[in-house]
């Protein structure tokens, strides 16, 4: 959870400065290791032989998991330090590049069967352009599986804010020996759904899952391991 909040957004986080600490945290924390990543893998299903792009791959844990299921994986991240960590994890010959989800992507049309975007879209202001690029690199009928901060979290944490406005906000977190500001874009659920549709995607599945069954008891937010409001997951189909 964040330590504090700024509505006049702090500078966007420079992931290069804390990439190693962030990556280490993601290996074992509740939100990444036992919540977001297991659900993304579950939604991906049988990926053997599929060409997959990880949009915002970070240090590559999801790429590694999908590759272990016999997928052919490529990935990109805005942070050169994260890309270097991904190459260390996956091997120097891995197709991992520095690229911006909010800009044109360095991949040809119709290149991938599946795009995964785990906790990366909420860093992007212009979803229309980003989703158009993801749709472009997907084969017709290909899937986009994504996760974002659940829009209702914003309404709960900031009850005085305008839930229906596109809003940039920042929260500070402790990683390693320092505190960093993470800056996100909130948009209401109706805008999330309609932007997907306008970009040429059909919605196949929406999930609000419980933590993974193997989550250590000390990490569970509820004693019975039931679902809690955190992230929202989408399985979309390119039309």
Automatic annotation (TrEMBL):
Return one Gene Ontology term, BP aspect: methylation
- Pinpoint the Methyltransferase type domain residues: 53-145
Q: Which UniProt keywords apply?
A: Methyltransferase, S-adenosyl-L-methionine, Transferase
Origin superkingdom: Bacteria
GO terms for MF: methyltransferase activity
Q: Which InterPro entries match?
A: Methyltransf_11, SAM-dependent_MTases_sf
Give the protein's recorded name: Methyltransferase family protein
Which taxonomic lineage does the organism of this UniProt entry have?
Bacteria, Bacillati, Actinomycetota, Actinomycetes, Propionibacteriales
């Amino acid at each position: 959870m964040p330590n504090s909040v700024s509505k006049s957004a702090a500078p966007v986080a420079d992931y290069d400065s804390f990439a190693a600490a962030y990556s280490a945290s993601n290996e074992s924390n509740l939100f990444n290791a036992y919540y977001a990543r297991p659900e993304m893998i579950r939604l991906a299903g049988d990926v053997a032989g599929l060409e997959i792009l990880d949009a915002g791959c970070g240090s590559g844990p999801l790429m590694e998991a999908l590759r272990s299921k016999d997928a052919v994986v490529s990935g990109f991240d805005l942070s050169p330090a994260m890309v270097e960590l991904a190459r260390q994890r996956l091997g120097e010959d891995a197709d991992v590049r520095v690229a911006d989800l909010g800009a044109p992507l360095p991949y040809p049309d119709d290149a991938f069967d599946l795009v995964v975007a785990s906790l990366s879209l909420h860093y992007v202001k212009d979803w229309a352009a980003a989703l158009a690029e993801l749709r472009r690199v997907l084969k017709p009928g290909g899937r986009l599986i994504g996760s974002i901060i659940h829009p209702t979290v914003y309404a709960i944490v900031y009850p005085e804010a305008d839930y229906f406005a596109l809003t940039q906000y920042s929260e500070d977190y402790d990683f390693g020996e320092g505190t960093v500001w993470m800056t996100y874009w909130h948009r209401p659920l109706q805008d999330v759904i309609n932007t997907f549709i306008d970009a040429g995607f059909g919605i196949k599945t929406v999930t609000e899952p419980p933590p993974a069954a193997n989550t250590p008891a000390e990490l569970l937010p509820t004693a019975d391991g039931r679902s809690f409001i955190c992230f929202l997951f989408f399985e979309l189909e390119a039309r």
